[in-house]
Amino acid sequence: MKLHMSSLCFSVVLSLILLPPLSSATYQKLSGGSSLSVENPRDILVSPNGTFSAGFFPVGDNAYAFAIWFSKPTCVVHNCTVVWMANRDQPVNGRRSKLSLLGTGNVILTDAAQLNVWATDTASLSPVQLQVNDYGNLLLSNSQGTILWQSFDSPTDTLLPLQSLTRYTALVSKRRKANYSSGFYKLFFDDDNVLRLLFDGPDISSVYWPGSWLVSWEAGRSTYNSSRNAMIDSLGNFSSSDDLIFRSADYGASWIQRRLTIDVDGNLRLYSREERDETWVVSWQAISQPCTIHGLCGENSLCGYAPSTGRKCSCPEGYKVKNQTDWSYGCEPEFDVSVNASEFSFIHLRNAEFYGYDISSFNNKTLKECEAICLQTVNCKGFQYKFNGNGFYSCFPKGQLRNGQQTPGFDGDIYIKLPKAYISYNNKKPFKAISLDCPRNDTIMLERSYAKSLENGIVKFMLWFASALGGVEIISIILVWWLTSASQEKNIVAQQGYLLAAAGFKRFTYDELKEATQNFNEEIGRGGVGTVYKGMLPDGRVAAVKRLNEANQGEAEFLAEVNTIGKLNHMNLIEMWGFCAEKKHRLLVYEYMEHGSLAENLSSRELDWQKRYAIALGTAKGLAYLHDECLEWVLHCDVKPPNILLDSGYQPKVSDFGLSKLLDRGKLYNSSFSKIRGTRGYMAPEWVFNRPITSKVDVYSYGIVVLEMVTGLSPTKGIQFVHSIAEREMEYRSVNWVKEKKKESNSMESWITEIVDPMLEGNYDDQKMETLVEVALHCVQEDRDARPTMSQVGERLLHHRENEN
To answer: What sections of the protein cross the membrane (predicted)?
Structure first.
């Protein structure tokens, strides 16, 4: 660790010698008649406690903005966290630009051409001063203490604790990660008094949070207010006049640095960190599925997810990307758009949608009828075709293809109109997918040109000499900091661990959960990881509190696991509400499921054929989200009926995902099973043969669960622990039994009838049952590469109705 720190210090020192330091403060106040020069890196205002600095910040190639940034922990050029900028859209030159506090009480920012780029437009007869306070607010005040102007009244992309967002202000994102100019995303109070996120692009604008399909009260917002005010307090609680309230995961810690920022991807995130930590941790975010954010990939483009690269943009067939470095421009047609309507046909994109811009909507239409409607409409670029849940399909012709996304869990398809000649010439042309990473060399070029002054050798020498002196000063500071912090390293984890908790959680105390469960009185479930109790939270919500058996992890490691789980959000995954990490106690708080688990209902007549098929489909969607859609790649490793919970409408919610990570990783469960995960009867052969573990282990377990729902036979009934490969054949006898019945029979109907659970009493759909069994058998193949993905399984089950037609 010391060697690593030494290397780190050396690299930091070297960078400080080569680059002018940003954090060597010389001022706490600027008086009337004084100025700060862009050419003097020591011309910086620093808050009394040293947390914030204000000065000229590099934003491009010889381009600077007057900004406020966090100066604790010590940061170097380009790595400081900026919270405010005066001239983000009109940077100044690195020569002869300055910020001046005039004796008249006005603050002006001038560039090299002596043009006023920015000003406070204030005046005062009494002496004035400019300073940064300990909250990050740049204040201009007179000798009587009256505030004439403050940066808190004109935020850029960040809201700091105790800074108000009002009807007159808004947060506007940066353009890109390395481009600080105003971007396309905005947080503001709308005319109905509701706080909203808006995509405000060059051509169109649209609200995407809260969902535009929701009435305000359905989104938990109130329009019955007129104050239009929102603020984060020093403890991490955000409250808005429209009833939007949330807390940071580290709520209650007043010494934590926090900031609410609208990021370049359009998501609103609350960040936290301790002063000694260089890393900001997301402690809340508005949107868990980033592809639902409007405008990310531009017109005619689809946003999707990939386990290796995360979010990506794709041009569908027939379209090409406009700008490889900026996906907000989207895609453009490669074909001639003036072709006659009779010469058009359609390509089919599954699990995809383009939100909004419907020309009209038509219910109870066949696919052919919907195609005819779009072909007869001149400005129709394609149509959405979706099962509406009422027994028929709906058709939505699209005038524009915007806000596109393609995710395996989406229930609907898009048909894009293309010339027939183009489709046949470019048959099965693959998508052109490009990651949303920003270009590395992204700089702002000034529109105006400046005459560069001649610099002789003496001037260059003096500049380098001054920088060297500053470097020596910083070296001394860093060495003292390193020696001091090294002795405190063991205590940092205990103070920082909670920062890893995920967005939207509440950190409960052990006493709170003990009271909520009436001293863990009502047990509703028990497993290898822990015991689950029913409880009532102080806000009246009924919860399931899981008390973990083992507490071998440290707090920070435990919260890192909770962070992974908590970021997941899907209608078929159980929702986590909070956690407890206190001494040796480790507890997780979930929503309570009224109908318990699938295991408890398999022998009930309430679980008819329709419910079983819906459970199979919903479970597939939830697992597909874990494998392919969420930003974290998560394997469940223990898919089984007890871990599939049923809500009041018997809709499935997968639980205990990721909790296998909370077990002791070094423990040997059996001499033949090292680091084993799962439950006997549902485990894939990979576990037994010590083969590499992939997402296909969950696919196998899912297939076993589906066979159990179909046949009513448990794969674990009467099985003792498996000690050998030979005995493993007994464990998977239900699979072999179904395969034998299929092999022996001459017709599909006869062997299906033999294997179906007698509890169904013959009340099932033959074709759906056939599909379900075929999918299950496909999932339980010995060769993992021969198994489908969970996305493919969900797609097969979801589109069975269309296949029938």
So the answer is: 461-483
Q: Is the model's pLDDT at 470 over the cut of 90?
A: no
State the total domains in the chain: 5
What whole-number distance in Å separates Cα of residue 543 and Cα of residue 212? Answer: 30
pLDDT at 640: 92
Q: Half-sphere exposure (CA, 13 Å, Cβ side) for 308?
A: 3
Which candidate, 434, 159, 170, places its Cα nearest to that of 296?
Answer: 434
Cα 276 to the chain's mean position, in Å? 25
480 assigned to some structural domain: no
Both 738 and 611 in one domain: the answer is yes
In the set 157, 638, 656, 698, the catalytic residue is 638
Rounded-to-integer distance, Cα 542 and Cα 238, Å = 24
Burial of 688 from C-beta contacts in 10 A (0-12 / 13-18 / 19+): middle
pLDDT tens per residue, range 189-241: 999 999 999 999 888 889 999 987 778 887 889 988 888 999 999 999 999 99
Could you tell me if 146 and 245 lie in one domain?
no
User: Is-above-0.70 flag for pTM?
Assistant: no
DSSP secondary structure of 469-526: HHHHHHHHHHHHHHHHHHTTHHHHHHHHGGGGPPTT-EE--HHHHHHHTTTTT-EEEE
191 catalytically annotated: no
The span from the CA of 559 to the CA of 75, in Å, is 27
What is d(CA 572, CA 617) in angstroms, rounded to the nearest whole number?
10
pLDDT in tens, 13-39: 333 333 333 334 457 899 999 999 999
CA angle 176, 181, 184 (to 5 degrees): 65
Q: Kind of pairing, strands 302-306 and 404-406?
A: parallel
Which residue range is the domain that position 285 belongs to?
165-292
DSSP alpha helix (H) spans, 567-656: 598-601, 609-624
Question: 419: cis peptide before it, omega within 30°?
Answer: no
Name 716's Cβ contacts closer than 8 Å, sequence gap at least 6: 679, 680, 681, 682, 731
- Is the same domain home to 136 and 32? yes
Other Cβ atoms less than 10 A from the Cβ of 753: the count is 15
Q: Encoding tokens for residue 380? A: 């129709």
